[in-house]
């Protein structure tokens, strides 16, 4: 801790060397100048050179506007989305790590549940999001510890160039699916207010082949309906070009049924879950010629109710579980950045957070109340001694439950091989820590208050190539990665009949990622191809005697070795055609990886296509789109004994006023 304080004091001293600071040149062509968003994109706090960061294209948002974030990431990134079905829980896995190792930030506010440490991506509507950036590996340390795999950053922003306007979305789909979204904007160049509303529902009663029963009979999915609705209210104030303040309030309620497993032959049952979410964040930013300041505070609250009962042969309902959980998080952040020299930038970030969970079951009479505090200080230096070399050093130290964490340094380098060709070599190394969630520590029965934090040492290296000749653009990125994670937390069945988390001594995750983007324009037709592939080996190297020896060296459950996808876009005269293809290799559901087990998940290939047209009339813009999912009508499972729908359709109508 003393080392970090000394380094932080040194950085503060460097930041005050304002006579040596420089002012960056600004283009004089007023046609190119945009409003305050230019300053936001320039912010080096959100980027570490030498690491991997990807952003989702705006064209993808338009084509998938009525879907969830889970569906967007599943088709357009190397992230593996583990989903229980349409409208059901969906979690993300980066680079062979677990769902709790993926940190999610909404406008700078961390929204991971303090109970499970995870985020349900199926409950995040794209109506409320303007941009998505994916930070792989140690790039996520820019926002704090815990993202052993990476982080997903979600943002919403105003359009300062448009005074008033509205967008209305309406989609209708198979299985009684409806989705409605409204986005209204009003204000001026100093004050901007946006109101977004969405509502979606589905009977979700699709037919599927039940491979858990003899003869694979066709059955209808029951009790899988869902109904979600929410409001996002935003207000922005920009008195001048150097200051901007914003307030965002996101309120949402989700209600859904949880269907029986394909292998469940028991009597009738009622299985329902209801979630009420509230996220709110206020921030103020100052943008100087060579400095930036950021102050933000935000809260995240969740109320969850889960009810499960069974019916007897006499149709008598017997409640089994009636659980209520409330969680609350309060986070604060202060950041200061300065261009110390023309080639050197320094920043200091101070964050603190408080989390509390209260969980109880009225039937089983179990539950717990837990809380934790966390304070962190991050100091970062970014040096660009010449136009071909960039270096970064990030130093992070935290206090968790009043106990200091081990020192967490991160170093990365980026080198441009040729002066006149955009070919870059990248490399990075970092130490990262992930602390147990409150469920891990206090869940009753099963919580383990003696769990140790997960400690990860991560490496990555890669090459990036970019070519932009006339009417053609090509970007290729290849990255190798490796992580050694000590004290990996895994829940295992206990002899007493419940599950309990334990620490595995060592888990290794290593592999390679490749992505390609090609954009070509032939006369009036624009073609775009985006592809990604991931090879991931994630295995238990030393369990410390907690599991059977035959599991050592085997792939972790639910993590595919091979995954990848291709998205092809064609745009002509306001018509567009999009085709996407994704593939996941087989996944095992046990640590033994028995190839003869009926519990393994077979590989599957998924295709979808959409065609749309944008046009103008009555001083407004309109859009019409037809989308087909599971184009080849494949029968598959993402989670064991959880069916997924066959070929299905949706029609979207959009109005921009």
Total strands: 32
pLDDT averaged residue by residue = 89
Helix content: under 10%
Going by CATH, the architecture would be Beta Barrel
Form type: globular
Radius of gyration: 25 Å
- Poorly predicted runs are 1-45
What does the main sheet amount to? 22 strands, antiparallel, barrel
The CATH topology assignment is: Maltoporin, Chain A
User: Strand fraction band?
Assistant: over 45%
> What is the class in the CATH system?
Mainly Beta
Supply the helix-strand structural class: mainly beta
The fourth-level CATH homologous superfamily is TonB-dependent receptor, beta-barrel domain
- DSSP helical segment count: 5
Q: How many domain modules?
A: 1
Tell me what you see in this structure.
The chain is mostly beta strands and 657 residues long. It has a single domain, classed as Maltoporin, Chain A. The protein is built from five helices and 32 strands. The strands form four sheets. The chain has a 22-stranded antiparallel barrel. Strands 1-6-7-4-5 form a five-stranded mixed sheet, with no helix packed on it. It has a two-stranded antiparallel sheet with strand order 2-3. The protein is globular.
Offer a concise description of the structure.
The protein has 657 residues and is mainly β. It is built from five helices and 32 strands. It has helices at 2-15, 37-42, 58-63, 69-76, 438-442, and strands at residues 53-55, 80-83, 90-93, 102-106, 109-110, 131-136, 150-155, 165-173, 177-187, 191-202, 207-209, 218-220, 226-240, 243-257, 269-287, 291-311, 317-341, 344-361, 366-386, 389-400, 403-404, 408-418, 421-434, 454-467, 472-493, 499-522, 525-542, 562-572, 575-584, 604-617, 620-629, 648-656.
């Amino acid at each position: 801790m003393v080392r970090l304080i000394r380094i932080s004091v040194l950085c503060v001293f460097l930041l005050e060397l304002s006579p040596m600071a420089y002012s960056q040149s600004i283009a004089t062509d007023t046609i190119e100048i945009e409003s305050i968003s230019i300053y936001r994109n320039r912010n080096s706090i959100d980027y570490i050179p030498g690491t991997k960061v990807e952003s989702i294209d705006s064209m993808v948002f338009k084509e998938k506007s009525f879907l969830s974030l889970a569906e967007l990431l599943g088709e357009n990134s190397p992230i593996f989305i583990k989903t229980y079905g349409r409208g059901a829980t969906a979690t993300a896995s980066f680079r062979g790590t677990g769902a709790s190792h993926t940190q999610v930030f909404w406008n700078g506010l961390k929204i991971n549940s303090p109970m499970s440490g995870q985020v349900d991506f199926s409950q995040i509507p794209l109506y409320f999001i303007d941009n998505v950036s994916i930070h792989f590996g140690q790039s996520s340390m820019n926002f704090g510890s815990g993202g052993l795999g990476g982080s997903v950053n979600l943002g919403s922003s105003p359009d300062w160039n448009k005074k008033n306007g509205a967008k209305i979305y309406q989609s209708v789909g198979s299985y009684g699916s409806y989705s409605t979204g409204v986005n209204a904007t009003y204000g001026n160049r100093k004050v901007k207010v946006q109101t977004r509303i969405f509502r979606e529902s589905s009977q979700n009663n699709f037919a599927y082949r039940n491979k858990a029963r003899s003869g694979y009979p066709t059955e209808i999915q029951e009790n899988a309906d869902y109904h979600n609705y929410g409001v996002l209210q935003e207000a922005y104030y920009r008195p001048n070009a150097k200051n901007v303040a914003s307030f965002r309030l996101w309120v949402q309620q989700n209600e859904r049924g949880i269907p029986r497993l394909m292998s469940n032959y028991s009597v009738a049952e009622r299985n329902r879950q209801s979630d009420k979410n509230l996220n709110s964040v206020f921030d103020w930013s100052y943008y100087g010629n060579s400095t930036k300041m950021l102050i933000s505070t935000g809260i995240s609250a969740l109320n969850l109710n889960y009810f499960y009962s069974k019916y007897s042969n006499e149709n008598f309902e017997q409640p089994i579980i009636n659980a209520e959980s409330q969680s609350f998080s309060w986070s604060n952040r202060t950041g200061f950045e300065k261009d110390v020299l023309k080639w050197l930038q320094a920043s200091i970030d101070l964050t603190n957070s408080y989390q509390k969970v209260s969980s109880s079951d009225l039937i089983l009479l179990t539950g717990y109340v837990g809380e934790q505090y966390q304070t962190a200080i991050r100091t970062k230096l970014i040096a660009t001694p010449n136009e071909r070399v960039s270096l970064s050093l990030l130093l992070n130290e935290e206090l968790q439950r009043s106990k200091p964490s081990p020192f967490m340094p991160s170093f990365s380098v980026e080198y441009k091989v040729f002066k006149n060709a955009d070919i870059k070599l990248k490399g990075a190394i970092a130490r990262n820590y992930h602390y147990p969630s409150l469920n891990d520590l206090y869940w009753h029965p099963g919580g383990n208050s003696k769990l140790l934090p997960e400690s990860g040492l991560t490496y990555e290296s890669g090459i990036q190539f970019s070519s932009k000749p006339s009417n053609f653009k090509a970007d290729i990125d290849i990255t190798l990665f490796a992580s050694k994670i000590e004290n990996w937390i895994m829940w295992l069945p206990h002899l007493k009949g419940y599950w309990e988390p334990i620490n595995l001594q060592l888990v290794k995750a290593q592999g390679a990622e490749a992505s390609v983007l090609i954009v070509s324009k032939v006369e009036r037709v624009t073609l775009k191809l985006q592809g990604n592939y991931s090879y991931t080996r994630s295995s238990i190297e030393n369990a410390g005697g907690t599991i059977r020896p035959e599991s050592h060296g085997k792939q972790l459950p639910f993590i595919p070795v091979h995954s990848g996808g291709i998205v092809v876009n064609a745009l002509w005269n306001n018509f567009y055609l999009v085709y996407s293809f994704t593939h996941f290799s087989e996944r095992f559901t046990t640590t033994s990886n028995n190839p003869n087990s009926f519990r393994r998940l077979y590989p599957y290939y998924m295709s979808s296509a959409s065609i749309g047209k944008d046009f103008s009339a009555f001083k407004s813009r309109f859009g019409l789109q037809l989308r087909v999912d599971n184009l080849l009508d494949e029968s598959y499972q993402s989670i064991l004994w959880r069916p997924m729908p066959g070929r299905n359709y949706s029609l979207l109508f959009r109005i921009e006023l």
